[in-house]
Amino acid sequence: MDRFILAWAEDKDIRQKGQCGGFVTALLKFMLEEGIVDYVLTVKDAERFGYSLCLTDNPKEVVECAGSVPWATPNIAKFIKIHLDTDKLRLATVCKPCDARAVVELAKRNQINMKNVFMIGLNCSGTFLPVTLERTLDSLNVCIDDVERVGIKGDKLTVSLKNGSVITSDIEELEKRELGRRENCRRCEVKIPRMCDLACGRWGVPEGKKATFVEICSGRGAEIVERAVELEVIGFERASDENLRMREEEEKLAMVMSEKWQNYYFEQTSSMSYEERRNFWFGMFNRCIKCYACRDVCPVCCCIDCILNPWRPLIKGGEIPPGPAFHITRIIHVAESCVNCGQCQDVCPVEIPLSRIAHKLNKEVQKKWNYLPGVNLDEMPPLSRSDGFS
Ligand SMILES: Cc1cc2nc3c(=O)[nH]c(=O)nc-3n(C[C@H](O)[C@H](O)[C@H](O)COP(=O)(O)OP(=O)(O)OC[C@H]3O[C@@H](n4cnc5c(N)ncnc54)[C@H](O)[C@@H]3O)c2cc1C
Ligand code: SF4
Ligand code: SF4
Ligand code: SF4
Questions:
Q1: 358 and 334 Cβ atoms separated by less than 8 Å
Q2: Are the C-beta atoms of residues 117 and 91 closer than 8 Å to each other?
Q3: How far is the CA of 345 from the centre of ligand 3 (A)?
Q4: Which of 73, 184, 220, 360: disulfide with 355, CB 3.0–4.6 Å?
Q5: Contact in structure between 271 and 228 (CB atoms under 8 Å)
Q6: Cβ(64)–Cβ(72) under 8 Å?
Q7: What predicted TM-score, i.e. pTM, was given to this entire model?
Q8: What is the Å distance from ligand 4's center to 305 Cα?
Q9: CATH ID of 272-384, from 2.60.120, 1.20.5, 1.10.3470, 1.10.1060
Q10: Angle formed by the axes of helices 274-285 and 324-333, to 10°?
Q11: To test the ligand 1 pocket, which listed residue (39, 68, 71, 129) has its Cβ within 8 A of the most ligand atoms?
């Protein structure tokens, strides 16, 4: 099997229902039906920008989940860690790059058994908070009930309406007005999840062709796709040089946009004096109501008895705001492994830009130790390595 293919579901209904030819859905269904895995973890769309995670052993339900849900930011890694015993059950899961990176970081800390987790990665340009997406649509004079599909193509937001028309808008312009994608997605630096068994996306596929570009990233990924092709579940063709070139260009464009946003957000504070920067962040932290949501949601936080618990000596119970030690400790604890998933920021009820400071600190760690979290299972986090403090 070639490393790069264009692939689709042979089943007509799945091909139609899938976002880009239904390869992912057909393969997940095949893995359940063939007994290769016990469960599949996917995402289910719901009314008015709602969604839910779907853990199922029912192939029919897998098909119901076909399609992209760009307002869904499920905490897939955390769900697997908390709710599934991956030593005992075999799982196939879909994941965006940030989900996959968190799974890999947890696996390095023995919280997830990768032998039993097959990751089907989806390329990703970004996701939306439902409330911001509604405001974005408002600004384009679009009613939520008229929307068929929302997506990002290059540097444009595209909104397909039920009446067949398509509205496009410059994503950077929208985001300068705090509309568009989540803040962490703008800065996101991993767009193709090559740490997964398969990395799937529409980049590299010519306009109008119902297929997904699949990069086969593991031996077991190749074996499973080959079996699915043999049994005529999946159709495929070799990716051409032109397909590869198109995909590379799209990835490059997304990375240029991400770098611009990193500079924008990080320079806001790095251009300040020490005093100003301190006042900025401590002012933010003063809003904190110590709800612990940022700690509890973080997919890479996994200490059994967290030092921030009120019965430990660091943070006094019954006092708000908790003081900067709460935040500094949390952020330092995830500095080497923060995958910029944005979950902490999404849940903060007082809107502290938490992922921004965690990502910034992580960039410093990256510079010092040349370590990008979650992209290589065999590379240990710097502070766990014998040369970590050198
Ligand atoms: C939010 C998002 C952004 C994307 N951005 C890009 C991009 O910029 N460039 C690119 O090349 N490809 C991108 N993709 C991938 C692409 O849109 C297709 O998902 C991919 O080509 C597979 O198509 P398919 O028909 O085989 O998938 P389908 O058969 O339609 O299966 C898709 C699977 O993805 C799951 N899913 C849907 N939404 C989410 C979500 N938010 N998080 C996790 N899982 C989800 C569904 O449950 C389903 O199992 C993106 C996908 C998503 C979900
Ligand atoms: S952080 Fe990156 S991978 Fe995750 S949803 Fe945003 S753009 Fe996609
Ligand atoms: S600190 Fe925030 S952005 Fe970083 S991994 Fe944890 S939840 Fe995600
Ligand atoms: S989520 Fe926000 S309010 Fe809650 S503890 Fe974290 S920083 Fe404080």
A1: yes
A2: yes
A3: 8
A4: 184
A5: no
A6: no
A7: 0.97
A8: 19
A9: 1.10.1060
A10: 100
A11: 68
Tokens of 2: 């070639």
The closest residue, in CA terms, to atom 4 on ligand 2 is: 98
Q: Which of 119, 109, 42, 117 is nearest to 86 (CA)?
A: 117
Mutate to test the pocket of ligand 2, among 182, 185, 343, 362 (most ligand atoms within 8 A of CB): 185
- The 10s digit of each residue's pLDDT in 359-381 is 999 999 999 999 999 999 999 88
Task: Tell me the two tokens of residue 197.
Answer: 């068994």
pLDDT in tens, 280-316: 999 999 999 999 999 999 999 988 899 999 999 899 8
Range(s) of the chain covered by CATH 1.10.1060? 272-384
Architecture of domain 128-180: Roll (3.10)
> Locate tokens 């996994």: which residue?
302
What is the CATH architecture assignment of 4-126+187-249? 3-Layer(aba) Sandwich (3.40)
